[in-house]
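During the no-cost extension, the postdoctoral fellow (Dr. R.K.) reprocessed legacy sequence entries with the updated structure-token encoder. One reprocessed record is reproduced below for audit purposes.
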Amino acid sequence: MLRVLPFAYMVAIFIMSSLPADHFVKLPDSKLDHTIKESLHLIEFAILYVLLVLAMLTRRGDFTPRWNLACALFAALYGISDEIHQSFYAYRSASWFDLVKDFTGISVCFYFIRGAMFQGKFRGLRKVLERV
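Re-encoded structure tokens follow.
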């Protein structure tokens, strides 16, 4: 199941990027609605990165620093492709700032996972990840 989740999540991202931003949820306060949806960029591709890591962790002994970096780069490249995809829809927007937010979320998760798995930091996180 963990190996399928990243691909299902990528499909969900693709579908949601094809729809207007308020297709699923629109809060009554438009400023709050915009702020919340913009802040989701910080976690959207971080979640993809974490799902990719979890999928790799199901392959015992195969998760190395290189695979960790590959997961982060793949999530970042998918973020770039998502911004390009959104640029083709009049009711969506693509921006460099959105990419910065995407990369920031990925980088924060990368920091913690790298620290836990390869640098002896964040022992609690490492225990959780090792149970996968």
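The chain has one domain: 5-15+41-130. The chain has a mean pLDDT of 85. The remaining legacy entries will be reprocessed before the final report is submitted.
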